[in-house]
């Protein structure tokens, strides 16, 4: 007589029960909250400020990818995420898509934040620092993306190795070391992105109370740094642990928390604009227009062109008006004064006409 062995006793268990409810709760709650935040951001940019920037495009892409990650996590609970290894079938090991979406989502969200910093501070050293971080973050997006895609050849071997015996995969130890290094670099970039706007904010001429309030909005990024650190700890726990799918729930939950907090931090200025539009005295309008754009559609690579007319009334040449939205000292403690530098280029025709008028005037004299 054969005794059936319960497969749950053949595998080590890192905890009791299941983490499926935690995965579902975190994913659904954060998706709903972020959908509201992004809707407010788009409403402000389209209908109040009437201007969409590159940072908005990156943030929308990052949000869609983050929603995709949450949906993949929810679907993944059916195929093993949050369950003990002995409670799932051998053909249900599918987490490949969550790795791919996390790498893409965190990259686009960070690019959105960095592009916002370019709009806020146009000093040369700041722009160089931000551009360096953009290239670095882009590298962190592209590199891990291809490592994830090519970790198994063909990729389907990652989730169904028996169906592709001819393929091969990267060693698990090598994958673990790679994702540990990627997690550490993510924390470093989170800290740098969190600190980048602080020097600019504290050079603004306004009351200390307002400085603290403005800094607090951007300072929320420390929550994303904290989430990244906790996620990194959960990644370390996956090393040499046979019950990885149970522990994977914690890692994925903190991945999504890190992403959603970063999205909220990047969209927080839009909330101040919305509050200001309904309650004019609630927030300072100078801060609103500087931090989240003016009612004039902004452009950081091009300047609006205005046509001028010469003294005879004929249109002669275009004049380029470049607005450098620098913040300078203001005597009023409740407002931020905007400095606008205007550079004008006038055609030779206008200059020649002015010289001719001047010569005629001298001859008559």
TrEMBL record:
Pfam families tied to this protein: Fung_rhodopsin
InterPro entries referenced in this protein's UniProt entry, alphabetically: Rhodopsin_dom_fungi (IPR049326), SAT4-like (IPR052337)
Keywords: Membrane, Transmembrane, Transmembrane helix
Localization per Swiss-Prot or TrEMBL: Membrane
Primary residence: membrane
Ranges that cross the membrane: 20-44, 56-76, 96-118, 130-150, 184-204, 216-239, 259-278
Topology of the protein relative to the lipid bilayer: Multi-pass membrane protein
Rhodopsin domain sequence ranges: 40-276
Membrane among keywords: yes
Gene Ontology, cellular component aspect: membrane
Record-stated family: Belongs to the SAT4 family.
Protein name: Rhodopsin domain-containing protein
Lineage: Eukaryota, Fungi, Dikarya, Ascomycota, Pezizomycotina
